[in-house]
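Hi P.,

Sorry for the delay on this. The queue was packed all week, but I finally got your sequence through. Input first:
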Amino acid sequence: MYLRKTTRVKDGKRHQYWALVESYRTERGPRQRVVAWLGETDKAGRLGVERLAKGYHSLQGNLFDQSEPEWIEVNIKGVRVENIKDFGGPWIGLEIMNRLGLDRFFSKHLPKGREEVLWATMAKVLVLCRLCHPSSELYIAEHFFEQTALSDLLGVSADKVNEDRLYRALDKVLPYKEALERHLKETAGTLFNLEYDLFLYDVTSTYFEGEAKNNNLAQRGYSRDHRGDCKQVCIGLVVTRDGFPLGYELFAGNRSDVTTVQEIVEVMEKRYGKVNRIWVMDRGMASTKNFEFLMADGRQYILGANRGQLKAYETELLKKDWQKVQSGLEVKKVESPDGKEVFILCRSADRAKKEKGIHDRFEKRIEEGLKRIAAGCEKRRYKRSVIERRVGKLMGRNSRAAGLFAVEVKESPGGGAKISWTKKEQWREWAQLSEGCYMLRSNIRDWSARDLWKAYIQLTEAEDAFRIHKSDLRIRPVWHQKAERVQAHILVCFLAYVLWKALGGLCQRAGLGDEPRKVFHELAQIKLTDVILPTRNGKEIRLRCVETPTKHQRILLQNLTLHPPRRFKMNTL
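Then the structure:
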């Protein structure tokens, strides 16, 4: 609400009349209506009306002109601050959420009934808490929510946020997973001018605490987290060339990466179409069946090829016609035998140095192990089968250099076993030639080797997404036991990562780099504080104020075009 001044001419004189006007929204836009005519009111009268209007929560008192200062006598000895809360992180997350239209999406889609707190609001709580301080729903309800300014930002008091309400909010959000992915693709694409020609696909896993008996997807399999003792679920994530997530799918924890390709491609094509899409995947997705599937409908792809195929191009590795892409990296394009594909040979100096160190280290371990076995054979009479098992175990632990050794175990004339070995120099020569080399495979024949390699190397964006999910957003371990709750937990982590990447996009656009971690940490230090001012008449004035940003914080906020409020009203639901 606000005061409107109207000037009228009466009997040749100008008269100023005042009216109390309310602004409200309609289907056709904002409208105003007069609540009360005040006549020719002086300044004191207008101030009284303003104060009266501010006494009601339904009136928008912050729309009054604040340029005129208000004076009161304060006992400075009694001035104090209380109730310091974290403000910067939740506020930034909410600002980004609004820019991506997530607030509108939640308000439009999440069902409204007789609930005391809207499910749309609780969904925001889940996502913002996952971004700012990843933790369990119980910790959010009992500790974290009341430590933040979320009650002021969302208008929900801390006593309304409990574990049960957060769990139920997870159930309400999950059915809209696909719609959320579509919505975020459109809004983020418009906000950051994203390109959707390149789809980067990779798979990771996250493990459970507990038996997860009621979840069919929870299985034991290859664990990227080195927790083979726990059940896990696999997550297939698709991102753009800029690393912005397009969508994900969940797979059983014992499912191999190569079996997920057809399913994820069909899901994404159904959702976003398949025109002008180039699929980029690592060599873990390469199989004859997958290549046939990708080529069947004319799909374009760039995949890492199996290392064993390098041997067929030994002569190409020896040639000097390599193209330098960057310091220490060379590439070369070779036609496939049938002429339908191209292979990109890549050679990295840093990778060659690393692989040589690995080969040398394993060679030394094998040789030392064989010497110990031979010395043991001289002291005791072992059966030949026992020594063969020991040799096999030694080679299995050091497989990267096992091919270098030709080991022979015989029965000695005096009984027992005898061991001898030689080194295959041909194997060593091939190892030295192929160290640091790897191959890519593609059906895009009109691109240069440099362009194909640059497109493939964008897979690091998907790897970064998994790293942030596991470190900053703490997607693991999963404590939920119900299948639907697990899916909802991963969806909330996905939405929090979208906010993370959106902040990274804002930072990049502002010339602050594309890594938002430090920027978020700096701005998250801004606090919300209650300032208590004792007055002469014995009453106390309580002001809820946002901490004044430091010089560094002001520069960041200015570059990001973010403007934090200075003060909050002290009223919540």
